[in-house]
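Quick one, C-alpha cells below:
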C-alpha cells in the first residue's frame, strides 16, 4: 500500500492539449479547488515534482500534469486552474469547467480550506452535480485546529455521499488515504447521486425539459445538470457544449421549442433571465451554508480576532495606504542594497570570461572582426543583461511572492479597488500592477485573472507604465547622479529608495489617469463587480517561495530577455563600429534624433539609447556611456563622480535628468513585453496600441515638463 513514483515514460499529450492515457490502467485525476487552498502543494507532494507543462487548447493558460503509481494504477494528475465556480466568466474558470465537464476525468479531487469551508463547498456542490466520482480533501487542518475550528468529517461525508478526508498537504499528512480513496472512487462501479434542490419554478422547468434532453445526452451528461445549464444559458458553456457535441443542442427542434415554451412561462410569471441565473447560483450558496452549519463548529471570536485586527490596520482608509507606501519603500531598499553585491560579482565574473572567449575563438581560427562581434557585441550585452537584471529580480520576486503567500497582496488589491473602480476598471488590476514591478511581461500574463475582456485590455495596455526591474537601473543611476549629494553616501541607498518610491507613486497615478481615459474612449464600459478573496494570514513557506519565484518567474523572464538581447548586442556593436564619413552609424542616428530629443528635454543620444534598449532596458545607460565616449562597445563606469561629469559635459541638466526619468517611466514596452502582449491578446492591433499609448504619453509629458521648466528658468 505504498506511494511509488512511476518510472516509465512521460505523459502523452496531443496538440490540442487533451490528456491521453498510456495504458488502460491509467486514471486521469483532475485536481480542483478555489485559489489559495494549497492545490499546488498537494500536487507537488503527490507527483514528486514529476510534471509536464503545456497550454490549454486555444488558451494562454498553462496546464500542469504530473503522475504517480498506486496499487499498480498510474494516476495522471491534472492541476486545473483555481476557480470559485463552474459558472465561468474568466479563461481560468472556463478551463476548469470544460475539463471537468467535457474531458470526463476518472475522478475529481477537490481541495478545500478548512478555515473557510463554507465558501469552498459552493464549488464542491457544483462539481458533484456533474459527477459522483469525487474525493473531497479538506486542507489546512492544522490551521483550523489552531483557530479552534472543528469539522465533523464523517457527517460531511454522509451529506455529500462521497469520501471526505482531512489533510495537511504541506506536512504530507493523509497522502496515502487520498490515493486509496482515488483508487476506489475512480472505479466505474462507484456510482452515487447528489441532488441540489432548486426553487419550485426551476424544478418544474427541469422536469419539462428533462425527457427531451435525455434523448440526446443520456449516456454523456447527467440530465438534470445539463437541463440546468441550458436554462442558465451561459454563452461560454453553450459554445463549449456545441464544440464537444459537434452540433448545437439548442438548434434541435424539440429542445428549442420546449425552451421557448419555458421562457414564455417564466416571462408571464415576471421571472427575468437574470433572476433565473441568480436563483440557480443561490441554490448552491444556500446549500453550502446549510451544510457548513451542520459540520463546522468554531469559536468565531477567536477565529476572526487575529485576522480582523490585522485587517483593521492593513485595509483601513487611515493606515492602509501609508503602510503600502512604507512597504514599497522597504522592498525597493532591500532590492537596491541587496542587488549591489551579487550584481557586482556577476559582472566581474562574466566580464572576466571575455579573454577566455577571445582565446577560444582565435584557437578556432575565427576572423578578428567576427571575434569582436561575438564577444564585444553579443556576449558583452548578454553579460550586462544577466548581471544587471538577475540579482534584483531574484530579490524582488521572492519578496513579492512572500506578500502573496502571507495573504497581504489581496489586501493591497482591496485598498486600490476603490481607485480602479473610479477609473471604471477592475480592482484585480492592482494585483497585475504589482506583478509589473518585477517584470511587465509577468504583469501582462497575470492579467488573465481579470474576467472582463475590456478591463483585461486596459490592464495590459497600462501595465507598461509601471517601471520593472529593467528600468530600475536607469532611474537609480539618474537619481544617484543628480538628486543625491555625493557627501551623503551613508544614507544614499535609503534616500534613493525613497525617491524611487515617490517616482513609483507618480507612475501609479498616471496608470489611474490612463485607465480612466481608455475606459471613456476606445474601451468604453462600466466596471465589473468581482469577488475578492481575503485569505487568512499565513506564515509563508520560505523554501517553496524561493523555488517558485526563482524558477517560475525570474529564470523565465531572464530567458526571454536573453533571447532578444543577443541579436540586439550584435546590432549595437555594428552601429558603433561602422563608419560613414567621419562618424559612426550610431553617431549619425543620434545626430538625426537630436532636435526632437532636445524638444523633449533630452538629446539624440538618450532617445537612441532607449530605441536600442528595446530588447532590454538594462542596456540603456551603457549605450549612453558608449555613445558619449565614442567607444566601440558597451562600457561600465562605477565611479559616479566621473559619470556625473561625463553627463554634464554632454549637456545634462536637472531638466534633462527629470525628462529622462519621465520618458523611462513612459515609453514603449520592451520586446519581451511586446511578445507577451501579442501572445495574450492574439492581436497585432492591441500590441501596436500597447506600444504607442505609453510612448505618446511619455512624449507629451516630457514636452510639457521641459517647456514649462525652461519658461520658468527664463522668467526667473
Amino acid at each position: 500500500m505504498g506511494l511509488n513514483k512511476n518510472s516509465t515514460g512521460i505523459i502523452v499529450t496531443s496538440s490540442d492539449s487533451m490528456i491521453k492515457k498510456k495504458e488502460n490502467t491509467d486514471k486521469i485525476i483532475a485536481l480542483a479547488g478555489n485559489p489559495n487552498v494549497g492545490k499546488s502543494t498537494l500536487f507537488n507532494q503527490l507527483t514528486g515534482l514529476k510534471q509536464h507543462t503545456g497550454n490549454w487548447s486555444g488558451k494562454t493558460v498553462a496546464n500542469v500534469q504530473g503522475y504517480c503509481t498506486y496499487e499498480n494504477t498510474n494516476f495522471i494528475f491534472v492541476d486545473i486552474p483555481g476557480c470559485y465556480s463552474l459558472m465561468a466568466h474568466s479563461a481560468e474558470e472556463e478551463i476548469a469547467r470544460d475539463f471537468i465537464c467535457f474531458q470526463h476525468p476518472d475522478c475529481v479531487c477537490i481541495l478545500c480550506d478548512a478555515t473557510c469551508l463554507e465558501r469552498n463547498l459552493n464549488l464542491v456542490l457544483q462539481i458533484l452535480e456533474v459527477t459522483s466520482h469525487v474525493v473531497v480533501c479538506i486542507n489546512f487542518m492544522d490551521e483550523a485546529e489552531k483557530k479552534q475550528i472543528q469539522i465533523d468529517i464523517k457527517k460531511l461525508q454522509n451529506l455529500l455521499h462521497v469520501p471526505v478526508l482531512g489533510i495537511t498537504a504541506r506536512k504530507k499528512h493523509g497522502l496515502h488515504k487520498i490515493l486509496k480513496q482515488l483508487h476506489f472512487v475512480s472505479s466505474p462501479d462507484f456510482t452515487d447521486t447528489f441532488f441540489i434542490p432548486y426553487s419550485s419554478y426551476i424544478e418544474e422547468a427541469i422536469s419539462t425539459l428533462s425527457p427531451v434532453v435525455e434523448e440526446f445526452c443520456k449516456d454523456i451528461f447527467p440530465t438534470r445538470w445539463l437541463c440546468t445549464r441550458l436554462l442558465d444559458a451561459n454563452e461560454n458553456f453553450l459554445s463549449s457544449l456545441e464544440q464537444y457535441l459537434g452540433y448545437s443542442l439548442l438548434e434541435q427542434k424539440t429542445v428549442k421549442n420546449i425552451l421557448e415554451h419555458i421562457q414564455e412561462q417564466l416571462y408571464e410569471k415576471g421571472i427575468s433571465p437574470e433572476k433565473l441565473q441568480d436563483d440557480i447560483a443561490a441554490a448552491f450558496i444556500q446549500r453550502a451554508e446549510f451544510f457548513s452549519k451542520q459540520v463546522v463548529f468554531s469559536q468565531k471570536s477567536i477565529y476572526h480576532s487575529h485576522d480582523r485586527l490585522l485587517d483593521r490596520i492593513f485595509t483601513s482608509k487611515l493606515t492602509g495606504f501609508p503602510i503600502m507606501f512604507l512597504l514599497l519603500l522597504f522592498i525597493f531598499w532591500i532590492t537596491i542594497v541587496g542587488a549591489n553585491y551579487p550584481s557586482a560579482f556577476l559582472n566581474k565574473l562574466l566580464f572576466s570570461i571575455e579573454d577566455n572567449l577571445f582565446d577560444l575563438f582565435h584557437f578556432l581560427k575565427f576572423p578578428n572582426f567576427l571575434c569582436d562581434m561575438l564577444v564585444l557585441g553579443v556576449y558583452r550585452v548578454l553579460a550586462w543583461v544577466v548581471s544587471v537584471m538577475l540579482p534584483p529580480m531574484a530579490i524582488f520576486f521572492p519578496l513579492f511572492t512572500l506578500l502573496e503567500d502571507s495573504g497581504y497582496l489581496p489586501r493591497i488589491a482591496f485598498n486600490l479597488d476603490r481607485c480602479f473602480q473610479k477609473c471604471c476598471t477592475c480592482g484585480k488590476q492592482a494585483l497585475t500592477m504589482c506583478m509589473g514591478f518585477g517584470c511587465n511581461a509577468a504583469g501582462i500574463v497575470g492579467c488573465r485573472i481579470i474576467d472582463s475582456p475590456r478591463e483585461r485590455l486596459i490592464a495590459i495596455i497600462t501595465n507598461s507604465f509601471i517601471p520593472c526591474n529593467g528600468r530600475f537601473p536607469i532611474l537609480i543611476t539618474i537619481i544617484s547622479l543628480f538628486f543625491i549629494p555625493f557627501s551623503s553616501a551613508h544614507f544614499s541607498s535609503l534616500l534613493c529608495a525613497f525617491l524611487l518610491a515617490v517616482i513609483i507613486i507618480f507612475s501609479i497615478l498616471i496608470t489611474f489617469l490612463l485607465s480612466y481615459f481608455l475606459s471613456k474612449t476606445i474601451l468604453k464600459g462600466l466596471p465589473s463587480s468581482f469577488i475578492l478573496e481575503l485569505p487568512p494570514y499565513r506564515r509563508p513557506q520560505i523554501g517553496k517561495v524561493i523555488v517558485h519565484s526563482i524558477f517560475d518567474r525570474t529564470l523565465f523572464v531572464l530567458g526571454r530577455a536573453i533571447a532578444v538581447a543577443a541579436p540586439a548586442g550584435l546590432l549595437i556593436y555594428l552601429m558603433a563600429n561602422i563608419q560613414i564619413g567621419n562618424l559612426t552609424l550610431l553617431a549619425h542616428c543620434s545626430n538625426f534624433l537630436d532636435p526632437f530629443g532636445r524638444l523633449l528635454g533630452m538629446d539624440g543620444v538618450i532617445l537612441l539609447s532607449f530605441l536600442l534598449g528595446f530588447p532590454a532596458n538594462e542596456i540603456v545607460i551603457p549605450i549612453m556611456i558608449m555613445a558619449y565616449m565614442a567607444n566601440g562597445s558597451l562600457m561600465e563606469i562605477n565611479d559616479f563622480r566621473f559619470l556625473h561629469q561625463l553627463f554634464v559635459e554632454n549637456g545634462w541638466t536637472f531638466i534633462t535628468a527629470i525628462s529622462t526619468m519621465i520618458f523611462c517611466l513612459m515609453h514603449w514596452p520592451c520586446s519581451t513585453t511586446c511578445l507577451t502582449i501579442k501572445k495574450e491578446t492574439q492581436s497585432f492591433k492591441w500590441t501596436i496600441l500597447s506600444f504607442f499609448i505609453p510612448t505618446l504619453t511619455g512624449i507629451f509629458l516630457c514636452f510639457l515638463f521641459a517647456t514649462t521648466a525652461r519658461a520658468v528658468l527664463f522668467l526667473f
